[in-house]
């Protein structure tokens, strides 16, 4: 794509942003459009004409300054770049400087005088900014940056802008909120908040009061990590070396957690072990064991997290066990080692890196988990729930929430740093390109017995939990062991009445529709942006590539609760006000799930020889054509994976979005959490069943639609491609 | 023609501290097949990629047919390139591969496929249009890659080691095909290879590179018979390098013997002399005045015989036609040098 074309397109966007689209966000939604071109829906041109936003003339003049040259067919790169960068900065600075209550920065009073209050930027602002970014890219490309390709320049500038706005800015806002008190910067307040006894108290050691949330969080995460890894290891050893015939059961155990909303197991646990739960009642009836609320607290949350994490540990560790070349173990046994010695001296040391990775993953997942502690935590608070209550609870204290979020962020980054340090150093490759046709050594009998003693009861337990979920929606009151069949709960949630067409009367329809809508919009955006970024990062050399990659990956390490808090803090006020809209949900999902799409794309691109891109370039294919005709068709499997992943995650996420939903745009998961808190366990379970079915249908559907075409096209997919000289 | 097909002026390409191409200046004539030859890591592939626009130079100026393309991206240069791996798009069939450049250039699909089919026919690939690249043999894939490049009627056609993925027998035929095609269409071709025989066989002009610089440029004949230095002499085919003395026009002294030989002009005095194995004749010691020696090793290769001959100037490697008289190991011989090349520097 030529710089001239992009420059002219930018002009069109800028003009549309100034003349047509409403400059500010409209409180009244699309209905406000009737007032165009005045009132709520006034475009910038009208506001400039009546003098209420006179200071924005400067931005418009800057953006239109290069117009004569562009129309004459020239692309003055330097002029374009500087003018557009200046205009972008101006629009944001004025947005922060002149807020809802008029001038927010007294420093600018002599310059702006009595600048009237203004609301957030709307579609006009967004279109104008997009145009300005396009102009900036055209300018940079015309100066020979980004290999002179305006398309690449636009992709880089655009995605960098979006990442700055939706990943970096919220983080910075949290930092700022943590050091602010009563609108002033107060480092002392930050220190107090970070060192608060609610976080670090050790009272539980000596008294009956609870310990600080940091200790709670660490304890929970450590226990979850150790126990789920041990269970996963037992399953992995049995599956890979145990000679047991239970593969289908093992497979089912690995797939179920992926399509279950994370807190659904909590529901089942309450049904089983709550005060009136099935098991509790049985214990009372048969053994006179008194009913108690032990499930609410550390044991319950731990159980729920292990139920979710153990299968993931199983998948990781099974891969590691199978990757150990059998010839190594055979070599040890030919040297006279007995079975257990072989396991202890060869197998186990080779497994250690995988176990470390597994521990750290479960640790990080436990830190980030929000749904289970919320449902089952009781008085046992962890950082993620405490952050939530600091925002949504009786005492709304953003500063405290921000400080707790920083602590959680520090723990997460600490774990990731540890992982990088540990895994960066050691890597055992035991499967080489050479044929390795040994027979894996069977487990030592004692160990097999031990593994079985862990694995089989756990499998029964898992089956019971998912059985509850399966059955719970279809019986009267599973919480009180009333197991007579009924459609009642589905009726409450999903009633449809026919009166001149369908009327969705069920209480769950609204949130289900919103959820599907948001997931369906965000999944293609995530996959698209993720694959584009992967292509930029893997295939294009440009200044700032490393920073762009870092920012992309950053959002992966941020726990959902922190993302949620940072979003409501950053986007609750002009100039970028998104809270309460469906847009913020979409944006949140896109940027949270982006790293997975990027990673998948980069991995897939590594399999595609770079000379294919180069061949396209030498035949006159610019970056855009190459991407469209060569790279994307070859990346189809990665795109399918990214689509499916982001759809499922958008349907099952709770932690970030619980802060962002509104009465108008509620999500299924948040609705279910609400039902649980209201004690409507059966309805919650019924709804979860519906979610699981929707996800299965959509994921299989994506594979069918996008995947089929590929199979028909490429019977023999791999051309003889060798690395170039 | 007045214009050069490709003109490099002081072109440098640095990767970090490494200068893959270091201040290179040359003109390549139009309508000629030029090979870039050199050992691996000498900068020949980087030079080719600079021509293609797949790399942009750190310094210097590149012109193609008189047009400054130094800062142009590959897509805007109107060149075409045949890759070492062929780089056929695995998800497109042969016809789609060949019409790709026309389609992205804005041609209508029907017109593009018409032209592509004509080009496939020219290269003897008719009937294969619907196949996928993975369903073709190596030689066919190579021709599809050439067809895909030629259909764009490029100003310059670039080949990056096009024969390296073919087996030895096919190599010779394909390189002759390329040469025929180039002559028939009057193309300007730049061809990268590390195989000197391949370079000698097909080129109008050979550019030998070493350490990012041009070591020597000339016709195959000139490079072989008139190498600038020991590196070229050795790289362009085997050579015995002897220490000796130039006594005058056509007279040299090596190993204590004074010999009459054909040679290029060189000032009298001590010099290194390159002698090609095939320009040494072995005669009976009493038959002629020559460098006396003794056969150490003899091998019969069918078309030729190879000898190692121990002389006062060192061990000589000699290749004689099979029809020439044979010598046994241990035989005393007199070595007659038909041609010696005094090396400069």
What does this structure look like?
The complex is a heterodimer of chains A (725) and B (345). Chain A is an all-alpha fold and 725 residues long. Chain A has three domains: 3-107 and 115-143, no CATH class; 200-428 and 440-482, MetI-like (MetI-like fold), CATH 1.10.3720.10; 504-713, MetI-like fold, CATH 1.10.3720. Chain A is 68% helix and 3% strand. Chain A has 32 helices and eight strands. Chain A has a two-stranded antiparallel sheet with strand order 1-2. Chain A has a two-stranded antiparallel ribbon with strand order 3-4. In chain A, helix 12 packs antiparallel against helix 18 and helix 14 packs antiparallel against helix 32. The longest helix of chain A has 33 residues, at 681-713. With 345 residues, chain B is an alpha+beta fold. Chain B has two domains: 4-231, Rossmann fold; 238-343, Beta Barrel (OB fold (Dihydrolipoamide Acetyltransferase, E2P)), CATH 2.40.50. Chain B contains eight helices and 20 strands. In chain B, the strands form four sheets. In chain B, strands 6-7-8-3-9-10 form a six-stranded mixed beta sheet, with helices on both faces. Chain B has a five-stranded antiparallel beta sheet with strand order 13-12-11-14-20. In chain B, strand 11 (240-248) and strand 12 form a beta hairpin. In chain B, helix 2 (94-104) packs across helix 3 and helix 3 (109-122) crosses helix 4. The radius of gyration of chain B is 24 Å and the shape is elongated. Chain A binds chain B through residues 144, 147-149, 609, 611-612, 614-622, 625, 629-630, 633-634, 713-725, and chain B through 40, 45, 52-54, 56, 71-81, 83-91, 100-101, 103-105, 132-135, 138, 141, 148-149, 152, 158, 160-161, 164-165, 192.
């Amino acid at each position: 794509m030529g710089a001239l074309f992009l420059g002219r397109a930018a002009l069109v966007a800028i003009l549309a942003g100034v003349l047509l689209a409403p400059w500010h966000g409209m409180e009244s939604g699309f209905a406000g459009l009737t007032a165009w071109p005045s009132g709520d829906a006034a475009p910038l041109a009208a506001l400039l004409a009546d003098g209420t936003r006179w200071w924005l003339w400067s931005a418009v003049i800057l953006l239109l300054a290069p117009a004569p040259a562009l129309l004459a067919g020239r692309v003055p790169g330097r002029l374009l770049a500087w003018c557009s960068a200046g205009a972008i900065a101006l629009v944001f600075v004025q947005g922060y400087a002149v807020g809802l209550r008029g001038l927010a920065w007294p420093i600018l009073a002599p310059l702006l005088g009595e600048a009237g209050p203004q609301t957030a930027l709307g579609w006009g602002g967004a279109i104008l900014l997009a145009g300005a970014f396009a102009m900036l890219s055209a300018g940079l490309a015309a100066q020979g940056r980004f290999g002179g390709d305006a398309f690449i320049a636009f992709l880089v500038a655009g995605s960098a802008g979006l990442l700055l706005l939706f990943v970096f800015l919220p983080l910075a806002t949290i930092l700022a909120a943590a050091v602010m008190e009563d609108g002033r910067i107060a480092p002392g307040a930050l220190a107090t908040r970070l060192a608060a006894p609610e976080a670090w108290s050790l009272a539980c050691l000596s008294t009956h009061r609870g310990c600080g949330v940091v200790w709670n969080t660490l304890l929970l995460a450590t226990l979850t990590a150790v126990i789920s890894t041990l269970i996963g290891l037992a399953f992995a050893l049995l599956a890979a070396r145990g000679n047991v015939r239970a593969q289908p059961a093992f497979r089912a155990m690995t797939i179920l957690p992926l399509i279950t909303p994370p807190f659904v197991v909590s529901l089942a646990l309450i049904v089983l072990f709550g005060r009136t739960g099935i098991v509790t009642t049985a214990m009372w009836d048969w053994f006179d064991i008194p009913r108690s609320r032990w499930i609410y607290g550390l044991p319950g949350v731990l159980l729920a997290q292990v139920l979710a994490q153990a299968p993931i540990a199983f998948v990781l560790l099974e891969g590691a066990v199978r990757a150990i070349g059998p010839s190594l173990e055979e070599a040890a046994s030919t040297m006279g080692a007995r079975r257990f010695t072989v396991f202890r001296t060869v197998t186990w040391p080779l497994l250690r890196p995988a176990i470390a990775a597994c521990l750290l993953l479960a640790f990080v997942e436990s830190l980030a988990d929000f749904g289970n502690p919320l449902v089952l935590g009781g008085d046992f608070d962890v950082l993620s729930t405490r952050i939530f209550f600091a925002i949504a609870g009786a005492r709304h204290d953003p500063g405290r929430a921000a400080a707790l979020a920083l602590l959680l962020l520090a723990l997460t980054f600490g774990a990731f740093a540890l992982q990088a340090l540990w895994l960066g150093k050691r890597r055992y490759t035991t499967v080489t390109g050479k044929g390795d046709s040994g027979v894996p050594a069977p487990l030592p009998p004692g160990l097999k017995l031990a593994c079985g003693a862990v694995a089989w009861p756990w499998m029964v337990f898992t089956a019971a939990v998912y059985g509850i979920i399966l059955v719970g929606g279809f019986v009267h009151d599973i919480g009180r062991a009333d197991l007579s069949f009924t459609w009642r709960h589905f009726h409450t949630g999903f009633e449809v009445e026919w009166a001149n067409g369908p009327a969705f009367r069920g209480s769950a329809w609204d949130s289900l529709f919103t959820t599907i809508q948001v997931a369906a919009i965000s999944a293609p955006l995530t996959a698209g942006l993720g694959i584009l970024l992967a292509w930029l990062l893997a295939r294009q050399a440009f200044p700032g590539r490393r920073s762009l990659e870092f920012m992309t990956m950053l959002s992966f390490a941020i726990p959902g609760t922190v993302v949620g808090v940072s979003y409501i803090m950053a986007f609750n006020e002009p100039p970028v006000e998104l809270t309460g809209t469906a847009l913020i949900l979409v944006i949140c999902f896109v940027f949270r799930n982006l790293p997975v799409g990027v990673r998948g794309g980069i991995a897939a691109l590594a399999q595609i020889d770079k000379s294919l891109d180069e061949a396209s370039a030498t035949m006159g294919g610019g970056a855009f054509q190459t991407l469209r005709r060569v790279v994307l068709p070859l990346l189809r499997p990665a795109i399918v994976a990214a689509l499916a992943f982001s759809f499922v995650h958008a349907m099952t996420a709770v932690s970030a979005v619980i802060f962002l939903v509104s009465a108008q745009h509620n999500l299924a998961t948040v609705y279910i959490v609400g039902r649980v808190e209201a004690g409507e366990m059966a309805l919650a379970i019924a709804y979860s069943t519906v979610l699981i079915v929707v996800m299965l249908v959509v994921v299989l559907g994506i594979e069918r639609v996008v995947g089929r075409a590929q199979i028909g096209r490429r019977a023999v997919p791999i051309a003889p491609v060798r690395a170039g000289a | 023609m007045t214009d050069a097909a490709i003109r490099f002026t002081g072109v440098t390409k640095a990767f970090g501290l490494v200068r893959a191409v270091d201040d290179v200046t040359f003109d390549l004539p139009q309508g000629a097949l030029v090979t870039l030859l050199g050992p691996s890591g000498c900068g020949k592939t980087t030079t080719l990629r600079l021509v293609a626009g797949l790399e942009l130079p750190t310094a210097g100026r590149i012109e193609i047919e008189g047009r400054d393309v130094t800062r142009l991206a590959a897509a805007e240069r109107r060149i075409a390139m045949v890759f070492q791996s062929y780089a056929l798009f695995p998800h497109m069939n042969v016809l789609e591969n060949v019409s790709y450049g026309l389609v992205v250039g804005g041609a209508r699909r029907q017109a593009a496929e018409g032209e592509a089919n004509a080009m496939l026919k020219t290269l003897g690939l008719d009937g294969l249009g619907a196949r996928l690249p993975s369903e073709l043999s190596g030689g066919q894939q190579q021709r599809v890659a050439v067809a895909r490049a030629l259909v764009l009627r490029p100003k310059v056609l670039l080949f990056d080691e096009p024969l390296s993925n073919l087996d030895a027998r096919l190599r010779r035929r394909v390189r002759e095909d390329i040469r025929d095609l180039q002559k028939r269409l009057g193309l300007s071709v730049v061809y990268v290879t590390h195989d000197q025989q391949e370079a000698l066989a097909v080129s109008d002009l050979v550019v030998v590179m070493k350490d990012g610089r041009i070591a020597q440029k000339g016709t195959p004949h000139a490079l072989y018979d008139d190498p600038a230095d020991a590196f070229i002499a050795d790289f362009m085919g085997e050579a015995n390098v002897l220490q000796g003395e130039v006594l005058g026009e056509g007279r040299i002294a090596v190993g204590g013997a004074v010999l009459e030989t054909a040679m290029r002009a060189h000032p009298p005095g001590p010099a290194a002399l390159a002698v090609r194995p095939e320009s040494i004749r072995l005669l009976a010691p009493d038959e002629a005045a020559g460098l006396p020696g003794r056969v150490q090793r003899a091998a019969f290769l069918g078309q030729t015989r190879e000898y190692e001959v121990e002389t006062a100037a060192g061990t000589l490697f000699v290749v004689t036609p099979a029809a020439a008289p044979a010598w046994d190991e241990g035989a005393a011989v007199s070595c007659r040098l038909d041609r010696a090349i005094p090396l400069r520097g």
